[in-house]
Amino acid sequence: MTHQGEVLLAVNGLKTYFNTDDGVVKSVDGVTFHIKKGETLAVVGESGSGKSVTSLSIMRLIPMPPGQIVDGEILFTGKDGVQKNIVNLPEAEMRRIRGNDISMIFQEPMTSLNPVYTIGDQIGEAVMLHQGKNKREALAVATEMLRLVGIPAPEKRVNEYPHQMSGGMRQRVMIAMALSCNPALLIADEPTTALDVTIQAQILDLMRKLQQEIGMSILFITHNLGVVAEMADRVVVMYGGRVVEEGDVVEIFKAPRHPYTMGLLNSIPRAGDAAHVPGQPKQRLEAIPGNVPNPLNLPPGCPFEPRCKFAVEACSEAVPPLFDTGGGHVARCIRWQEFEQAQHEVNA
Ligand SMILES: Nc1ncnc2c1ncn2[C@@H]1O[C@H](COP(=O)(O)OP(=O)(O)OP(=O)(O)O)[C@@H](O)[C@H]1O
Known about the structure:
With 348 residues, the chain is of the alpha/beta class. It is built from 12 helices and 12 strands. It has helices spanning 51-58, 91-97, 109-112, 119-131, 135-148, 154-157, 167-179, 197-214, 225-231, 249-254, 259-266, 336-347; strands at 7-20, 23-36, 40-44, 67-77, 83-85, 102-105, 185-189, 217-222, 234-239, 242-248, 323-326, 329-331. The strands form 2 sheets. Strands 6-7-8-3-9-10-12-11 form an 8-stranded mixed β-sheet, with helices on both faces. Strands 2-1-4-5 form a 4-stranded antiparallel β-sheet, with helices on one face. Strand 4 (67-77) and strand 5 form a beta hairpin. The protein is globular.
């Protein structure tokens, strides 16, 4: 993976809140991260941690009301080379950015594909809108894109409707549609979760291959750390609407400094875990006990404290800041140095 080191997207202190009858839900509460050109950044966390609200904020697709971006900036440099703050761009300009500079693929392609239009019409529409091509040229681009994402007989498939395709093929169509205008940033929100494991692996392979060809950056949203290991350069771990850890993927897997990340890592199956002796109980993966906190009733201190086996009294007093643990790795845990120490002792 090649990085030019140039920042494509910088999210600074983003706060996206929802006004509900029960109070204000602080879904994203002061989130900061960046993505460099050509890089894949994974955002991980359990359901409800604020991953999707973060990506929808970047696309400016938060339903307003009840949602609102109340603070922060989202700086993005599009194909025109000009840096813009997405938070306050006029809607007309956002429409030029969506699908052209930033594309998004979702977990369930059927919710994004229109059942009454052919695949070719749907891919072609974005190409006509953003690239000023006529219908015939747009159809040719659509056919080429289907070929690129490995759909057999694309000249025929381009005239078919979404229901004529399998789930894996539809996800390929979504990718073709998302990439048809050569976006600088692809946001992939759990793009393979609904697919079976073999197809999942094929789609991830395809995304990696296309990224190398096109050179785009990917913001990969997932709760699956196995997928992170395969896809990402860097990882942002979210919990309760905040970033709790961030770092290089190898470093995070080798030396997590936040107990929530440690918990996530302990709950993924690894090679070897599969060895199951018939008649013996299966080796159980350690799930993190408890649930993500109710966003309307967050504890006063560290939001992970009620579930944390390392919690001490100070943890419930104030939300910890992000500590710089070195080498671009940050963690929001007051005990991170003790984990580092313990690891050194184990390795010594
Ligand atoms: N339209 C809305 N109105 C009120 N609350 C919302 C709305 N959309 C999201 N939220 C809340 O924001 C919080 C974060 O949700 P978000 O969908 O970003 O989580 P997530 O980490 O992406 O989870 P998942 O993996 O399930 O998509 C949740 O508590 C959710 O209930």
